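[job 0417] fold request received: HTH gntR-type domain-containing protein
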Amino acid sequence: MPEQPPYLRIADELRRRIAEHVWEPGDRLPSRAQIGQECGVGENVVRRAQELLISQGVLEGRAGSGTYVAEPRQRVRVVRSSAREQPEGSPFRADMKAVGKHGDWESRTDAKVPAPAEIAVRLGIAEGELCVRTSYEFLADGRPVQLSTSWEPYDLTAGTLVVLPEGGPHAGAGVVNRMAVIGITVSHAVEQPEPRQATAEEASLLGIQKAALVTHIRRTYYSDQGRPVETADIVVPAAHCEIVYEIPINR
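[job 0417] inference complete; emitting structure tokens
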């Protein structure tokens, strides 16, 4: 059986010390040099072990201060279900309220953005065709817990009251309700979740370690005519959020 890589052995040792209350939540860990000397490894091995535990939410790094045992943090439940689309209110805010948190979001919309190749394929349009792109940061008690970037074909909503997802009289109403305003019935959505590591930009926005594990969801809404009307990339940090899918059953 292959020998366990040294950094995984050190990670296990750090977990053991935390489990046995050698270090309590909020405690600052000894220096990497000290841990390395105690465990017979170099500082780079300790660094890799700590980065792994930071990505898993066991430790947290504080710039200019050191590495600390992370305080217990309640994972936020994010529910994915077409049944949660509603005429008023936000499913995200409802999820946050259920765990005693205040849910909100910040957004930025750019109109007439040329569609990149992948987005064009997902929307069934030509590469370079204009889209309305909106970037979101979803917050729980002011802390970012989810990112999303949505794309809508510009020619679908141009000249209407719903051209800006977060502007005008229907701001924040959601894709299904906004499309209904202009006579488009959204019949279903397709989501493709997959795990990957956070990019540097995502890690910075979410307040997590670079390369920490996230769930990347590619979601596309379709009209009852089969046309894609919106596609989005949703990024959720695995250590802080759990994703639950509700499957409505029609009888």
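[job 0417] notes: The first strand starts at residue 59 and ends at 62. The domain at 76-245 is CATH 3.40.1410.10 (Chorismate lyase).
[job 0417] exit 0
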